[in-house]
C-alpha cells in the first residue's frame, strides 16, 4: 500500500531527526500526501527558542489521526522515549480496502476495524489517546486545539489544547465533490466504516421501497438504479461487490422486482481504472459488460438532485437526466480544511521550513 | 418462551376457525398479550355480510408484526391457501433474549436477526412482505392504513391501505415510562436491535468522554456510572453482561479510569427478579454484591435529567439525586397506541365479538 510506504518514510525521517544529539535543534515539517489520503507531517519550530541546556522532560509527540499513516508511524515509535498523545475522532483503525465488501455484507464491519487502544495495549505502547477532532493547528504556540467527539455537554469542557514538540499530521483526505451541486446532500461516500454501513442499509431500503404497493414500473426502475460516480478502484470494487450482492442474495429475496435492478458507473474519462495498466481496464470493462453493469464513460456529473443525476456528455455537450435510487460518489478526494489552514499559516508565517512530499 | 406458546395457541385457534366449511362465517378477534409484549389478534367481522356463495378468491390474511408472535403464526400457516401479507417496520425477526449480549459485543447484532424474506424463502412460503408501519386498523372497512418505513419522498406514495379477511395483530409492546419526566429523552431502552447497538456505542463513548483531558474525578465518576432502572430479567441480564464487558475488556483498554466505574440497579421493589422464585433473586443479589454491582432496592425513579436521576426512597419518602453517565430504562412495557385505538373502536362499535387473552 502506498499509505504505509509513505508513512514509514515519514517515520524514518522523523526518527532520524529526533535522534540528533540534544541541543541540535530540529526544525522540520514534513507533509506526505499519499494518493488516497494519507497525510503525514511533523513540525518543530523550536529553532527560535534554542537553549543551551535542554529540559530533562520527555519531548511531546502529538499524532493527529489513526488511519494508515498515523498507526504506521506509531508502530515504529519508541513510546518510552517520548510523551505520546494521539488525537482522532475514530478510536479505531479501519482496514479501508475492505470497505466495499462491508457495504454488501461480505465482510462484517467489526472484522475490518481494530480499536486503537487495543493496538497500543497489544504492542505495550505507553500512549494517551483522546477521541477528539483537531480544529486548528497553531504552529507558533506549538499547540493543537481539539474538541471531544463524544459530547461536549459536560460543563462545556469538550474543548482542550495539547502542546507538542513534534506534531505528526496524519488526518487523511476529505471527500472532494468539486463543488458539484447536490453531491454532499444526496450521494453516499465510501471513506469510513459508517459510510459502508449506511450504504448497506440504503441498498436494502431501495429494495423495500420498490416492494411497497402502488409503485409504478418506472418508479421501481428508478429506485433500483444504483449509480456509482467515479470509475476508480473504489467505485469499481464497489460495483463488483454490489453486483454479486444483488445477483447472489437480493434477487432471491425480492424475485418480483429482479427485472428492474440496474447498476451504472459514470466515469468522466474514456475508461474506468484509467490510472492502471490498460489491460486491467479492458478486462474490467468486458467483465462488467458481461455482468450487465452499464458503463457511462465520457460523462461528467454536473448536478445531483434527490432522485436524478444530471450528466453532460463531454464530447457532444448534451445534458441528460439519469433517475436513480442510490448514488455513490467516489470521484475525488481533497485536503481537509484544517490542513489547508495550517499550510496557509506555514506559508504566510514563513518562519517554519516545510517540505511537501506528494506520493 | 411465553411468546411462542401464546402465539401457537392463537395460531391453532385461528386455523381451527378458518377450517370450518365455507359459508359458516367466522367472527372472532383474539388478542394475546404475552408478558414481554407479544400481541396476537385476528379479526373477522364478515358476519353482517354473510353470502350464500363464498367468492372463489383466496381469503386475505394480513399479519402485523414480525416478532415472536407474528413469525410463529406464519410458521404454522399454509400460505398456499390464503393470500398472505405481512406488515412490519422491521424486515427481520430478532432473537430478543440475546439483545443484552449484543449491547456488550458478546454476540454480534447480525447473529441475532433473521431477514423475514429469507425465512419465507427457506420455508417456501408465498407471502408478500411490506416494510411499513400500521398507523390505524379500520375493523369496519376491514382494512389497515400503513405507511412505508423506507421513505415517503417518492411522489408522496408512502401511504397505502390493505384490506383483509383475517387480521393478525402481533405488534408487540411499546416501552412504558409511566410518564416519568425525562425518561424518553435521556434513557436507553432494550427492545430493538438498534437499541442494543446504541447502548454499545454509548458505553464506549462514556469511557472516551471520561478520558478526555481536564475532566475532574467527580465528573469521571459521574460519566462512568452506569444505571439500570428496573431489576427484571432484562435489566439484570444487561447488568451482568455490562459487568463482564467492563471487567474483561474495557478496563484493560482504559486502565487509568478503572477506579471510577460503577454499575447500579435501581429497583422499586424490595428485590430484583421479583417475579421469579425467591431463591433466584437471592442468588442474583449475592452474586451482584460480590461483583460490586450496587442494588438500590425500594427506590422509585421520579425524574431523569441529562446527567442525574432523581430517586425517591419508598419507605422514607426522601428524594436523592443520582449522577450518571448512561442509563437504561427496563422498568415497564405497555400497549402500542394503534392497539389501544383499535381496542377502543372495537369496544365502542360493539359489533365485533372479541376476546382478550392475557398471558
TrEMBL record, chains A, B:
Coiled-coil features, chain-numbered ranges: none
Pfam families attached to this UniProt entry: Pyr_redox_2
Domain FAD/NAD(P)-binding: 59-338
Keyword Flavoprotein annotated: yes
Keywords (A to Z) from UniProt: FAD, Flavoprotein, Membrane, Mitochondrion, Mitochondrion inner membrane, NAD, Oxidoreductase
UniProt record similarity statement: Belongs to the NADH dehydrogenase family.
Protein name as it appears in the record: FAD/NAD(P)-binding domain-containing protein
Organism annotation: Triticum turgidum subsp. durum
Amino acid at each position: 500500500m502506498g499509505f504505509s510506504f509513505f508513512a514509514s518514510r515519514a517515520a524514518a525521517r522523523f526518527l532520524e531527526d529526533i535522534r540528533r544529539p540534544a541541543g541540535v535543534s530540529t526544525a522540520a515539517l514534513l507533509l506526505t500526501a499519499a494518493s488516497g489520503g494519507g497525510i503525514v507531517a511533523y513540525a518543530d519550530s523550536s529553532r527560535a527558542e534554542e537553549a543551551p541546556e535542554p529540559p530533562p522532560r520527555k519531548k511531546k509527540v502529538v499524532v493527529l489521526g489513526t488511519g494508515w499513516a498515523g498507526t504506521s508511524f506509531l508502530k515504529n515509535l519508541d513510546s518510552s522515549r517520548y510523551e505520546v498523545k494521539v488525537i482522532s475522532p475514530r478510536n479505531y483503525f479501519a482496514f479501508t480496502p475492505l470497505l466495499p465488501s462491508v457495504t454488501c455484507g461480505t465482510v462484517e464491519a467489526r472484522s475490518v476495524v481494530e480499536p486503537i487502544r487495543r493496538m497500543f495495549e497489544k504492542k505495550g505502547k505507553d500512549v494517551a489517546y483522546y477521541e477528539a477532532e483537531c480544529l486548528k493547528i497553531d504552529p507558533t504556540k506549538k499547540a493543537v486545539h481539539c474538541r471531544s467527539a463524544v459530547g461536549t455537554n459536560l460543563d462545556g469542557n469538550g474543548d482542550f489544547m495539547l502542546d507538542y514538540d513534534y506534531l505528526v499530521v496524519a488526518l487523511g483526505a476529505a471527500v472532494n465533490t468539486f463543488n458539484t451541486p447536490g453531491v454532499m446532500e444526496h450521494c453516499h461516500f465510501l471513506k469510513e466504516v459508517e459510510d459502508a454501513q449506511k450504504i448497506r442499509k440504503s441498498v436494502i431500503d431501495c429494495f423495500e421501497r420498490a416492494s411497497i404497493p402502488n409503485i409504478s414500473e418506472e418508479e421501481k426502475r428508478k429506485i433500483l438504479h444504483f449509480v456509482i460516480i467515479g470509475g476508480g478502484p473504489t467505485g469499481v470494487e464497489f460495483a463488483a461487490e454490489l453486483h454479486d450482492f444483488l445477483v447472489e442474495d437480493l434477487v432471491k429475496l425480492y424475485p418480483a422486482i429482479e427485472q428492474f435492478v440496474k447498476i451504472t458507473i459514470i466515469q468522466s474519462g474514456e475508461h474506468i481504472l484509467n490510472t492502471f495498466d490498460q489491460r486491467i481496464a479492458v478486462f474490467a470493462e468486458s467483465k462488467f459488460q458481461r455482468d450487465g453493469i452499464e458503463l457511462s464513460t465520457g460523462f461528467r456529473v454536473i448536478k445531483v438532485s434527490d432522485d436524478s443525476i444530471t450528466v453532460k456528455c463531454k464530447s457532444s455537450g448534451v445534458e441528460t437526466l439519469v433517475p436513480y435510487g442510490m448514488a455513490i460518489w467516489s470521484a475525488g478526494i481533497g485536503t481537509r480544511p484544517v490542513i489547508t489552514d495550517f499550510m496557509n499559516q506555514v506559508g504566510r508565517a514563513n518562519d517554519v521550513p516545510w517540505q511537501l512530499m506528494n506520493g
